[in-house]
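Lay summary. Proteins are chains of building blocks that fold into shapes, and those shapes determine what they do. In this project we predict the shape from the chain. Here is one chain we studied, written as its sequence of building blocks.
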Amino acid sequence: MSTIFGVPAPALYGQILIGLINGSFYAMLSLGLAVIFGLLRVINFAHGAQYMLGAFAAYLLLTYTGIGYWPALVLAPLIVGAIAVLIERFMLSRLYGIDPLYGLLLTFGLALILEGAFRHWFGAAGQPYAAPPQLTGALNLGFMFMPIYRGWVVVASLVVCIGTWLLIEKTRLGAYLRSATENATLVQAFGVNVPLLLTLTYGLGAALAALAGVLAAPIYQVSPLMGTNLIIIVFAVVVVGGMGSILGAIVTGYMLGVLEGLTKVFYPEASSIVIFVVMAIVLLVRPAGLFGREE
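And here is the predicted shape, written in a compact code that computers can read:
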């Protein structure tokens, strides 16, 4: 069996694939957080709960209506995005212009309520959610066997992340979003409905989290704790990339996912803390993050 740096090649390739899969979820979730923070200046601690809601929406659609995986990729983000719109309109909008800590506390409380409610209804154990038949099986790449569904997750995540980046950086709507982060009053003076823009932005960020939840359901199962287990890592990814940086969220999400996978091969004891070590180093060297801007 061939080895790379003393490690069996299949084990190394397998961990790189796992790193890419984890990085896909880190990138999508941190992207949603970056979009929300970039415009609303809200540290959305409910993001992990919205990720969990996306997975449960897919599970409930299948269990009670027979709606399968492919429609759920569209319906679950729409459902969670609509819930997020109501949260922004009736709760978060009342906190704009005051200390951002209140937004953090509100969304943290919402996350605890949602997690507690779903634990009461479904228990802490995960619920199985099968991958669609078209994505079962594995591909022989010559140097490893790659499960088709996991490959699909990486590709789908890349498409969503690049599409979101293009929307924000290359379109008129994205120009309004970026301008509103600098001077919302001036943008509104030009006839742009900034409150609606804020609402749609929060809905978009939550929908991205829900989409990640649907993609994750066949891999990690559907559990009330799935968001809690991930959100702290995602916040670390956002800090490393730079708060509010769209490109930083995408690049650092994949980069830190792969780094975490490689650490499991070469130094397994550090795999659970390597992302936080990187975060600490980045904060010491560049407090604004790798792609962030100094205030």
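What the prediction tells us: The chain has one domain: 3-285.
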